[in-house]
Design a protein that fits this description.
Layout lengths: L2 H13 L36 E6 L6 H14 L1 E7 L4 H10 L7 E4 L12 H15 L4 E6 L3 E2 L7 E2 L9 H10 L3 E5 L16 H6 L12 H14 L5 E3 L9 H10 L3 E4 L4 H4 L3 H10 L4 E2 L8 H12 L24 H16 L2
Parallel strand pairs: 1-2, 2-3, 4-7, 7-8, 8-9, 9-10
Antiparallel strand pairs: 5-6
Helix pairs in contact: 4-5
Length: about 350
């Protein structure tokens, strides 16, 4: 063996160095990938128990071929329909509608709000006109709106920095949504870990550091202020249906969302991209989701992969214990199945979504 072959083999052996040989005093948290040692049953879920409507996805495919592949995946895992939250208006929205036109039974497209010139008098007339145009083009809802403290920045091509969902200037748009029966999907705040110090006391440290909210920015609203802004909008627009994304980012204290559900029948929430946050506390979350099974809808917000969908079904449907998935969830805690009842699964997977979209 020559020197190059020797070096190659040495590198391979180093890369395969077993965990027992690592120096734990120098092990970084980002490199810590625990594997469960428990010899306990684990369930393999290939397809959802009931047909599913994914109420929170986005325009991931870059080509017609990728759209076709997504449809095949949906069929294989049991996704009957996917809501594409496009954020978009204008020609961008039009192109997204066209992309999925071949599969109108499989996809529903939602638009954004056009915030162009929102700081000028009379802006609302233009924005309402564009909303009506988007509806005629095929959009059947609005979203995902997004406010992490500085305003509605998700919409494309023009963000609404400084404009919150409870602003009086939003009233004509939200009223028009009610008239057209266009539900509004909105992301407010982030979960509590993202506001805590990124230090050794934060049990969601790696994910929290990635999505940390910088509260030093001038004029930024904190978590509770953003949830309050959503509540005011829901209260002031009782004929408009709202879907709070990601459990309204109240995973660490679901009682806050429960109080909103108790007070406002026009509010729903999706469970998208928060499986890693709810699976560590399965008994509490099971009881919450059973209690509010009429107000929750399934969602993903994590791409189009088969194993992604199957992981969500694994968490919702089974009673499996102490398993990890750090490829999807950037946490170091183990996950547990929620073992939801058939009645709750049917509603969260499908029935509640049908009530909202009426088709």
């Amino acid at each position: 063996m020559n020197i190059y072959g020797f070096l190659f083999v040495s590198i391979i052996l180093l890369l395969k160095e077993p965990a027992c040989c690592q120096d734990v005093n120098n092990l970084k948290l980002k490199d810590y990938h625990p594997v469960s040692i428990y010899k306990i049953p684990q369930t393999k879920i290939e397809k959802a128990k009931y047909p599913v409507i994914d109420f929170h996805s986005h325009d991931y495919p870059k080509s017609d071929k990728e759209v076709d592949e997504w449809v095949n995946t949906m069929h294989e895992v049991g996704i009957a329909k996917t809501i594409i939250l496009s954020y978009s208006t204008g020609t961008r929205l039009d192109s997204i509608v066209m992309k999925y036109a071949r599969y109108k039974d499989k996809f529903e497209i939602w638009c954004g709000f056009d915030y162009t010139g929102f700081y000028k008098p009379g802006w609302e007339k233009h924005a309402v006109a564009e909303l009506e145009r988007c509806y005629k083009k095929g959009a059947r809802g609005v979203g995902e709106l997004g406010d992490k403290g500085l305003g509605e920045f998700y919409s494309k091509p023009t963000p609404g920095w400084g404009l919150h969902i409870d602003d009086g200037r939003m009233l004509p748009l939200l009223k028009k949504c009610a008239e057209l029966h266009m539900p509004v999907s909105i992301h407010v705040a982030e979960d509590a870990w993202m506001y805590l110090n990124d230090d050794s006391t934060n049990d969601g440290l790696m994910n929290a550091a990635t999505w940390k909210v910088d509260m030093s920015k001038k004029g930024i609203l904190d978590h509770d202020e953003l949830v309050a802004s959503l509540e005011r909008a829901v209260k002031n627009n009782p004929e408009t249906i709202f879907i709070a994304c990601h459990f309204a980012n109240c995973c660490s204290d679901l009682s806050k969302l429960g109080k909103l559900f108790d007070n406002y029948p026009n509010l729903y929430a999706d469970i998208a991209a928060r499986y890693g946050e709810i699976a560590p506390i399965p008994r509490f979350v099971h009881d919450f989701m059973e209690k509010y099974q009429d107000r929750l809808v399934y969602g993903t917000d994590m791409g189009t992969g088969k194993e992604m969908y199957r992981t969500t079904f694994h968490i919702l449907e089974t009673a499996d214990e102490h398993f990890y998935n750090q490829e999807l969830f950037n946490y170091h805690w183990p996950l547990y199945g929620l073992s939801l009842s058939d009645k709750a699964l049917k509603k969260i997977y499908h029935d509640n979504a049908r009530k909202i979209i009426r088709n």
